[in-house]
Amino acid sequence: MNSKSQHHRRAAVIGAGPNGLAAAITLAQTGAHVDVFEAEPQPGGAARTLELTLPAFHHDFGSAVHPLTAGSPFFSSLPLQAHGLEWIHSPAPLAHPVDDGTAITLERDLRAAESALAPDGNRWRRLMQPFAEHWSALSEEILRPLNVFTPHPFLLARFGLVAFPPAKTLAHLFRSERTKALFAGLAAHSFLSLDEPLSAAFGIVLGTAAHAVGWPIPRGGAQSITNALCTHLASLGGTIKTSTRIDDFSALEKNYDAILCDVTPHQLLRIARNRFPTRFARQLAKYRYGPGVFKVDYALHSPIPWKSADCARAATVHLGGTLQEIAQSEYDMRHGRHSDRPFVLLSQPSLFDPTRAPAGKHIAWAYCHVPNSSNVDMLQALESQIERFAPGFRDCVLARRVFSPGALEDMDANLIGGDISGGAVDLRQFFLRPTWRHYATPARNIYICSSSTPPGAGVHGMCGHNAAKQAASRL
Fold first, then answer.
1. 422, 256 in Cβ contact below 8 A?
2. Are residues 112 and 154 in the same domain?
3. 270 and 349 part of one domain
4. CA neighbours within 13 Å on the CB side: how many for 216?
């Protein structure tokens, strides 16, 4: 289709999260006019920054640290820095304290990591270096739907050999319990039990990203990413209408050539009403959501008093102790139980970005994994894990905002039961996410572009970009 006829095409995007905005930008780049409809008053979905505790304390509602944003093939192609996005790198991407009062750090430089992880440093470097050195090619491969035709077959085959096994199996490459614990924390981002296939993939990808692009935070919070995307979309002629929830496609007054939906499968089914054939509707209805999170945002009068000073070098801290402890916590969660010692992910961005809190004050957020739609109060268990490695933490708290899985869903309808991954990522659902059609539906002009589609969760925009490319090819 030539550019002149393409210019008269109109597309609607439901949802202004990172994937919805990526889809809108991709379509606008072809010359189509794009309207984005967002249910909340503020665009961004899980990439929003809000005053959740006290005035002038700016918290990230969802994502806070963004390796996959910085390493996204699509976002990297956009002039987001020109629209105000500025990355901040903490001295170490990650710290993992242990009970002897020290901490393991994941250093960004591979040689520094090799030294820090002795006696496993050489093994760590040999595991991560081939992927870190070819991050551009690897990210292109893993952040798109599976394709038997690949320009990088050997790289992808090498990745598959170490990514497919359970994380507990791959962790045995290392001699030191400290290195095993570090890798377990990375793999636990999968929301899988660490004895399940594919759990190692998350450890490999996040470890590789730390060396290739770092684990940066955006100055001003995740909203800075969203604002840059919105500004770029506006420069391409796209529009965003907030506080506009689309509950039925009939609410879209204009005749759109394509409608892309940054929603999960069950939501899409409700919005579509009776537009889909029975068989496809049943496939959507069978889509399974994954575990949820229990999250707490903190306003602090001082930095977290870590036992190990190394924890203050990292914007991200993993709290879980040993490989065995982390594996037990994630196993309990996957089997519908709540751990007394949950694996806790903590972010402390104000140590490196003073714009996030009043002078001398700080923010942090922490969450642990829980069964989907859990209503169990995990605050005591979560804070006990922080106190374990930072005695006196509770004395630093000025205010806290607690989000149960249900409260998270109330703030963002895509977080079904507190699931921040857009659906279960186990082997059964990995290849058919959400159905064999991936982005397309039987309705020729309707597509799904959320994290429920390949490649899944993360602020990388590739779900929206991939879906929009398919829609554009049909336009």
1. no
2. yes
3. no
4. 18
Predicted pLDDT of residue 66 = 98
Tens of pLDDT along 210-229? Answer: 999 999 999 999 999 999 99
Contact 363, 297 (CB under 8 A): yes
The burial class, CB within 10 Å (0-12 / 13-18 / 19+), for 282 is: exposed
Query: How does the average pLDDT of the chain come out, rounded?
Result: 96
Give Cα 188 to chain centroid, integer Å.
Answer: 13
**Is 235 domain-assigned?**
no
- Asked if residue 383 and residue 323 are part of one domain, the reply reads yes
CA distances from 271 to 245, 246, 250, 256, 265 (A): 10, 7, 9, 16, 10
CA 170, 173, 175, 179 torsion-angle sign: negative
Give the range of the structural domain holding residue 450, as residue numbers without chain letter: 3-39+244-289+423-474
Q: What integer pLDDT is reported at residue 7 of this predicted model?
A: 55
Least confident of 95-109, 137-151, 163-177, 298-312: 137-151
Residue 319 has pLDDT above 90, yes or no: yes
- Give 22's contacts (C-beta < 8 A, 6+ positions apart): 74, 75, 229, 449, 461, 462, 463, 464, 465, 468
Q: CA-CA distance, 460 to 215, in Å (whole number)?
A: 13
Please answer whether residues 36 and 232 qualify as being in contact, where contact means their C-beta atoms are separated by less than 8 angstroms.
Answer: no
The CATH number that applies at residue 250 is 3.50.50.60
For the stretch 140-199, pLDDT in tens is 999 988 776 788 899 999 999 999 999 999 999 999 999 999 999 999 999 999 999 999
My answer on whether 319 and 184 are in the same domain is yes
Residue 150 in 3-state DSSP?
A: coil
Which DSSP helix (H) or strand (E) runs through 5?
helix 3-7
**At residue 10, does pLDDT exceed 90?**
yes
Return the amino acid letter for 223: Q
Q: State the CB neighbour count (10 A cutoff) for residue 342.
A: 26
- Shared domain for 186 and 326, answered yes or no, is yes
CATH of the domain at 152: 3.90.660
On whether both 300 and 335 belong to a single domain, the answer is yes
Position 330 scores a pLDDT of 98
Could you please report the per-residue DSSP string of 51-83? --SSTT--EESS----HHHHT-TTGGGS-TGGG
Do 270 and 295 fall into the same domain? no
The total number of structural domains in the chain stands at 2
